[in-house]
Design goal:
Blueprint: H1 4-15, H2 22-28, E1 32-37, E2 46-50, H3 55-64, E3 67-71, H4 76-88, E4 93-97, E5 114-121, E6 125-129, E7 137-141, H5 142-150, E8 161-165, H6 177-189, H7 197-207, H8 211-214, H9 218-231, H10 240-251, H11 257-286, H12 289-314
Antiparallel strand pairs: 1-2, 3-8, 4-5, 4-8, 5-6, 6-7
Amino acid sequence: MRHCETTALAVLLRHQGLDLSEPMLFGLGSGLSFVYWDSKNMDFPFLGGRVKPFELTRNLAARLGLELLVQETTSPRKAWDQVAAQLDAGRPVGLQLDSYHLDYFTSKVHFAGHVVAMYGYDDREARLVDTEQQGGAVTTSLSGLARARAARGPMSARHRSFTLAVPRSSPSPRERIVPAVTACADAFLDPPIANLGHRGIAKAGKLVPTWLRRSDAPERDLPRAALLMEQAGTGGALFRNLYRDFLAECAQHLDDSHLRTGHRMYTEAAALWTEVAALISAAGEAGDQQSLDRAGRLLGEVSRLEREAMQELSRLRG
């Protein structure tokens, strides 16, 4: 699996006997979004393609009627006791933490919105499940895990742990496709501020061409931004590949022209996002303004394409 939060959700739900694909988990959690984020205290702008950390989990639990137990505390001792009690009872636990402190992470960048599933431990190590690119079933030191859970900063939580249970009366995932798709579409089409949703993509189209001037080290910052779009747990194309595959899977269960049109348009959008990432990377490596200008124009096209796709999907009825 490719994205951290859906990887952890899959582990917890499979333990309960509910086996859903990663695109289905992402889509039923209304995970797709967009944010262009820049501020005075940031070294370089950030392009995000999904809802904020843990919102996907809350969305999925509410939509499928799952019993979501979330525990947070400022006490490291209590935080460990909460997790150990669940594991000792035979239940895997989801953890939100800062990936910087995990031993198996070779790319040491602070990201406190990372999510893993924990399924065991001994006197020295914790046994975790992470994404395929991070190794799948991995281990990290208990001391590193404690630091990761205690980290503070953007997107951090207070030693957050969570478990999921599937009630007998839980609705079929197929029955929840339409509300999941339309809720995601409505949020994308009517964002509260201009740097979110389709408006945010349009804004990015205007600002990305300024990135050579925005950075003190464009040969570092622009390729890194492109790498985050394609490989940092996004599934490629800033999560658009995942949403494209979700819509394709939905079309196997639901015969609807709006759904088919949305899937076709997100297939186009995903390819454009990958092209944008390649142009941004090339611009940074060569100091090429023309590549950035081309990326900006493509983002304008993506904004229009995704807006029209979401307008189609918002008309979905089930």
